[in-house]
Specification:
The protein is of the alpha+beta class and 305 residues long. 44% of the residues lie in helices and 10% in strands. Strand 1 and strand 2 form a beta hairpin. The model has no long low-confidence stretch (mean pLDDT 93).
Length: 305
């Protein structure tokens, strides 16, 4: 496993030059695009790492997975998806076009419109501290905190998300206060994690929502099933279809450079690589996952032969 990870890291490094750090949030543009790390945590809780796996970065859109899981457990499936679909959008994660022109409902919870709707269900009852503590538990990382600089940078440059929020309100989708919803959403995106944090969360999901060592249930089995399915179909923005064919592992990316990947009943994978492609996905991270998928036979529909 260690040899495969080192090989994956070397392959990933070859692609870094083709990507760029997210620039629409100024603080994210300050990241070193050459940082790269991958962590695998197996079901037997063996940990394998290569590269920058302890470097902290902000979770960004990977927090949508956590928010969705909390909403499903707190509000139930029917309420969460009463005003939201679960279909790939084919558009950029921050697009307003189809929300305004094609459908009154957000296409899925992994794009910004859907994530804001999800957070809107939680605003009346849960605090940021509640959600932070839950994130620490499922990532098995007590060191997770909110990156204040990133939070302030995002709040100062969130005109598009604010527009999405008020558009959702105008359509009756978002019933909570728009500004409170926007603030909680941005705080969750600003949580500092590592590739190892994400691998831990991936293993919890791979283990059906149970802590891999204690067996304590951290997430309802039904919420886990729904979350992993939506990660597979929608987790890599408008590159999800091609990624599913090439890699075949339920994954969720964030513009901070992280990728969370879940290999059912086998392992969690966490990646950090802040150089992004034009869709907002870690360019090195995708290539590393493709290599790992082929080398370790991880594709959901891999041949047994």
């Amino acid at each position: 496993m260690q040899k495969v990870l080192e090989e994956a890291l070397a392959i990933g490094r070859k692609h870094i030059a083709r990507g760029e750090c997210a620039s629409y949030i100024p603080e994210l543009a300050r990241a070193d695009k050459n940082n790269l790390g991958v962590c695998v945590l197996t079901k037997s809780v063996d940990r394998y790492t290569a590269g920058d796996t302890k470097t902290r970065f902000t979770i960004q859109s990977i927090s949508k997975v956590i928010s969705l899981a909390i909403a499903l457990q707190h509000c139930g499936y029917d309420k969460v998806f009463d005003k939201m679909n679960m279909e790939p959008s084919g558009d950029a994660f921050n697009s307003l076009l189809k929300l305004d022109m094609a459908s009154d409902k957000p296409f899925n919870p992994m794009i910004n419109a859907g994530a804001l709707a999800t957070i809107g269900y939680l605003v009346p009852d849960l605090t940021f501290e509640d959600m932070l503590e839950y994130t620490r538990r499922v990532c098995m990382d007590k060191g997770i905190v909110m990156d204040e600089k990133v939070f302030q940078s995002e709040m100062a440059n969130c005109a598009r998300n604010r527009a999405i929020g008020y558009l959702l309100q105008s359509k009756g989708i978002l019933e909570s206060d728009v500004e409170k919803t926007l603030e909680l959403y941005t705080r969750m995106c600003s949580l500092s994690v590592t590739a190892e944090s994400l691998a831990c969360f991936g293993l919890v999901l791979a283990n059906g929502g149970r802590h891999p060592e204690t067996g304590v249930r951290l997430m309802d089995a039904e919420a886990v099933r729904i979350v992993k399915t939506i990660m597979m179909t929608c987790g890599m923005y408008d590159g999800s279809g091609e990624f599913a064919v090439r890699v075949g592992i339920p994954s969720k990316s964030g513009v901070g450079g992280g990728i969370l990947a879940v290999v059912e009943k086998r392992m969690g994978i966490g990646i950090y690589g802040p150089a992004l492609d034009e869709k907002g996905n870690s360019i090195a991270g995708q290539n590393m996952l493709e290599y790992l998928s082929k080398s370790l036979n991880l594709h959901m529909f891999a041949s047994e032969l």
